[in-house]
Write a structure and sequence with these properties.
This protein has 432 residues and is an alpha+beta fold. The chain has two domains: 92 residues, OB fold (Dihydrolipoamide Acetyltransferase, E2P) (Beta Barrel); 304 residues, BirA Bifunctional Protein, domain 2 (2-Layer Sandwich), CATH 3.30.930.10. The chain has 15 helices and 16 strands. Helix 5 crosses helix 8.
């Protein structure tokens, strides 16, 4: 007889089942021992009756603590009083490893749970998040591969900055100086579009931002794409399509996990069913003034407070386009109609989860890129490999980056982005 998962046993519903897993909860009396067995699929109440066991066996059963690993066999039947509606009357058992007193059985502080993250991963909420995270990663791969994109990998050790020098992590790279952890793949991705044309990646990114907000990590995962011949409007459609695809996959495949996380699925459905609202930066400022009573000076980037005010007005992500050039990166293409504006975009999630996608059509004019690099205090010679892409057959192209943890935090309804990754790294935490 083969072992069944807990979920398979519940679906079977009757007869003899053989199970293995960990003690999720335990309680008992002189005559009965109740344990809730946990595996990666679900939980199931299991009952031991003292009359079925000798004294030594009962002593072993009675001493079972939370997180002990066990194998057992018994008869499953429906019982609406049980946590998942079924119960197993245990007839045989084997203790694989008797747990010590598990430290996370009671409500604990955020810091205590962070210190014991390696154990907190076993909680049902963290397990549910990790399952949703897995769905999100698979959906990203499927979305791009279905559109004919190639998966492409760029170096983690890089010699140039792309997102601002103040957020770079210096690396002790043998005896060399001027080596950093990647902020993004972009500058090393653009050369590859002249070979593969349509590429994507999911990769770690590192930002030395000294921010302690609920939206920032120093080590995060980015889903990024770059495509030759893609102009700005097509880029917007691509980002909207990706978010819709991810959301549909999670809502379809992770119903139970969303329920455990107490996530209101009705708040997620508009993202699947409705077109996203699109507006220019100028229109966003006008809307903030009229609807929110906020007067923002033109040329200022949208801060968290402005993003939150805008997101409260809609139940889908908002696509904000055509930002002032001075608040965006050197590689963003100028709008041909107005050279103070670039063809850049931010996707802002609803419910106050902030920017989740940032992208642009890329500047193709070599002289303009060199000029803007100098304005930012950068030496164009350091970017020779990148500037060569504009010397030899440059074409219109676009790309974006999506912060995967921010998307997961939004989908799961998490209060803090640190709970959207197994082991978060922040300005103050680098272990466990």
């Amino acid at each position: 007889m083969t072992y069944l998962s807990v979920e398979e046993a519940i679906k079977k519903g009757k007869g003899i089942v053989k199970l293995r897993g960990w003690v999720h909860r335990e309680r008992g009396s002189n005559q009965f021992k109740f344990i809730v067995l946990r595996d990666n699929t679900n939980i199931l109440q299991c009952v031991f009756k003292k009359e079925k066991y000798n004294n030594k066996e009962w002593e072993d059963i009675d001493k079972l603590l939370v997180e002990s690993s066990v194998e057992l066999e018994g008869k499953i039947h429906e019982d609406k009083r049980a946590p998942t509606g079924y119960e197993v009357q245990v007839e045989k058992f084997k203790v694989i490893q008797r747990s010590e007193d598990f430290p996370l059985q009671k409500d604990q502080s955020v810091e205590f749970l962070a210190d014991n993250r390696h154990l907190w991963l076993r909680s049902r909420k963290m397990t549910s998040m990790l399952k949703i995270r897995s769905t999100v990663f698979r959906a990203i791969h499927d979305y791009f591969r279905n559109l004919g994109y190639y998966e492409y990998h760029s170096p983690i050790f890089q010699a140039v900055q792309c997102e601002g020098g103040s957020t770079l992590f210096d690396v002790a790279y043998f005896k060399q100086k001027g080596v950093f952890l990647a902020q993004t793949w972009q500058l090393y991705a653009e050369p590859a579009i002249f070979a593969l044309e349509k590429i994507y990646t999911i990769s770690p990114a590192f930002r030395a931002e000294k921010s302690k907000t609920s939206r920032h990590l120093t080590e995060l995962w980015m889903a990024e794409m770059e495509a030759a011949w893609m102009e700005f409007d097509d880029l917007l459609d691509n980002g909207e399509g990706l978010l819709k695809y991810i959301m549909k996959e999670v809502v379809t495949k992770n119903k139970e996990e969303l329920k455990i996380l107490e996530r209101d699925v009705k708040k997620l459905e508009p993202t699947i069913k409705k077109p996203f609202t699109r507006m220019t930066y100028d229109q966003a400022l006008d809307l903030l003034k009229k609807k929110c009573g906020m007067t923002i000076e033109w040329g200022k980037d949208l801060r968290t407070i402005e993003e939150d005010k805008l997101s409260a007005l809609y139940d889908t992500p908002i696509i904000v386009t055509r930002y002032p050039k001075k608040v965006k990166a050197f590689y963003m293409k100028e709008d041909g109609k107005m050279n103070k504006i670039v063809l850049g975009v931010d996707f802002i999630a609803p419910e106050g989860y902030g920017e989740i996608i940032g992208g642009s059509e890329r500047e193709s004019n070599l002289k303009e890129i060199e000029r803007r690099l100098k304005e930012e205090g950068e030496n164009p010679e350091q970017y020779k490999f990148y500037l060569d892409t504009r010397r030899y057959g440059s074409v219109p192209h676009s790309g974006f980056g999506m912060g995967v943890e921010r998307v997961i935090a939004w989908i799961c309804g998490l209060d803090n982005i640190k709970d959207a990754i197994a082991f978060p790294r922040t300005t103050t935490r680098f272990k466990p």
